Amino acid sequence: MFETFDALLLARIQFAFTVSFHFIFPAFSIGLASYLAVLEGLWLKTGKAIYLDLFRYWIKIFAVAFAMGVVSGIVMSYQFGTNWSVFSDKAGPVIGPLMAYEVLTAFFLEAGFLGVMLFGMSRVGKKLHFAATCMVALGTFVSAFWILSVNSWMQTPVGFEMGANGQFLPGPSWWDIVFNPSFPYRLVHTVIAAYLTTAFVVGGVGAWHLLKDASNGHARKMFSMAMWMAALVAPIQIFAGDMHGLNTLEHQPQKVMAMEGHYQSHPDGAPLILFGIPDSAEKRVKYAIEIPKASSLILKHDLNAPLAGLDTIPDDEEPPVGIIFWSFRIMVGIGFAMLGIGAWSLLARMRRKLYDWHWLHRAALVMAPSGFVAVIAGWITTEVGRQPYVIYNLLRTSDAASPLDAPAVGASLAAFVVVYFAVFSVGTWYILKLMSGPPHTGEAGVKRTEKGPIRTAGITPGPTQNPGGSQPVPGNEGEV
């Protein structure tokens, strides 16, 4: 079935498919873990039960999303050894320790405190439970820290030495590797994106319940908190994205050329192309709608600053312009839409109509999944813009793949598609079902079964016998 396909292309599609599924859940759980810590902290500080109710409402959703993120992440990492064994061999001395640090820090924090956070509120003190919630939130951030450090090193590799066998070996300082030139910008931009993603999900859920019952105090509170986040953080994200773009221009200029659609160099100021159809065969953007010299103003802060184009890059090093051009615009467009919702909510708040303007609620509901679309579009911009390299300017993607035939890669890709859509569709449906129920006073939180653990090994206890007969003693039926 897959004999006529290219094995490298199938391997790239498989990794893109699995990482796109995976990225959705950490982007949500990073922000939601922090939101839960804020809710519990406000409950402890104010004593208001509404914060505890919202905490218990959202912790159920967090538990499902966190579990799906862990499962999809584990599966994704196996591909380094199956489809990308050459990359693993060459970059392993640098990449391996950084990913191990994630396990030793983030996973240990999350594994150590997640059970207390989910099930321990009635078993430990309030302060200890709050500490566990904060540790889980910290763990999600630490996990993002290490993964983004790995990815950023692949984008801007420094601090390494080349071994005799072609391996990338750590140099004298790990600090140079961890805090590589693009890492601080990528970390800030991605973590803020996760917070905004969560804010708009929370805001969308609050808007949904306000449209059904505008008097629901719990829905009012979550909607108000989400809109504060949108109004205050969306402008910061736009500024952080601009800083990240300037850093990318310095270290990965051809990526920015593709994002801007600049096939040709502009010695006297480059236009900002708003929309158009990139044509790599003709080396131009057809039907371009542009603002003269605005790109130079944004990227160089000078209307007449020269900007190099893709005509300065060899054709075999040119990234796929069409994909990057549009994914970048989707990400930026959603960012400004978030800014608009935040500004709209401020106007409604000033006029004391935050809970009465149903068109604002409808817009927030439509924008609920926008954060997920934005983070996927941003990931596509970052990763496709690095092509044709997996380690920028040093190791080509075509040289990093395992020596596998197309049918082998295609079969595993087909299996991933079937299993992922089956499993994660059910998980997503369950999350939406939880969200569809309105938050209320006396939320139960995560329920714990009273039957105890299921025994999967050894001898399962049977019925307890009477000394003189074969009938079990009542109440000792030996539940499994």
UniProtKB/TrEMBL annotation:
Q: Name any one GO molecular function.
A: metal ion binding
Give any single GO term for biological process.
aerobic electron transport chain
- What are the TM regions of this chain, as residue ranges? 15-36, 57-78, 98-121, 128-148, 187-211, 223-240, 323-347, 359-380, 408-432
Presence of keyword Transmembrane: yes
What compartments host this protein?
A: Cell inner membrane; Cell membrane
Record's keyword annotation contains Heme: yes
Recorded GO CC terms: cytochrome complex; plasma membrane
Q: Which Pfam families match?
A: Cyt_bd_oxida_I
Membrane-topology descriptor: Multi-pass membrane protein
Q: Which family does it belong to?
A: Belongs to the cytochrome ubiquinol oxidase subunit 1 family.
Give the record's keywords alphabetically.
Answer: Cell membrane, Electron transport, Heme, Iron, Membrane, Metal-binding, Transmembrane, Transmembrane helix, Transport
Q: Which InterPro entries match?
A: Cyt-d_ubiquinol_oxidase_su_1
Q: PANTHER family of this UniProt entry? A: CYTOCHROME BD MENAQUINOL OXIDASE SUBUNIT I-RELATED, CYTOCHROME D UBIQUINOL OXIDASE
Taxonomy, superkingdom: Bacteria
Q: What is this protein called?
A: Cytochrome ubiquinol oxidase subunit I
Q: Give the region (Disordered) as residue ranges.
A: 440-480
